[in-house]
Specification:
- The protein has 113 residues and is α+β, with helices and mostly antiparallel strands.
- A hairpin with a 2-residue loop joins strand 2 and strand 3.
């Protein structure tokens, strides 16, 4: 595999926003693929209080060298003051799939709008 791949884990307040972000970043070539997982419940500490919320998980698959541009674009589209955007390196996988991910997210050189 010539390009390193990362999974970018994002939480969103609802599935509509997750779909909007997914379509935007895949269209721009910032991610090759997006998975949307609805119905996740988060329990977290925010500003000194324990909170809980139902959220939608968005998993974006991209080249590692495009994570900064992808994160900037997600941040621009996201309503949270501090959104969850975590990049996790992929250490192995089906070589043909990893090559497809690398090729389809090669447009990551497009600047974050």
């Amino acid at each position: 595999m010539s390009a390193e791949i990362s999974l970018v884990y994002v939480t969103t307040p609802d599935s509509d926003l997750a779909r909007t972000i997914a379509a935007d970043v895949v269209t721009a070539g910032l991610a090759a693929c997006a998975n949307i997982i609805t119905g996740m419940e988060s329990v977290y500490r925010w500003q000194g209080k324990v909170e809980s919320a139902t959220e939608t998980v968005l998993i974006l698959k991209t080249r590692s060298d495009g994570v900064a541009a992808l994160s900037a674009r997600v941040r621009a589209l996201h309503p949270y003051e501090v959104p969850c955007i975590l990049a996790l390196p992929v250490t192995s996988g089906l070589p043909d799939y990893l090559a497809w991910l690398a090729a389809e997210s090669a447009g990551q050189t497009i600047s974050a709008r």
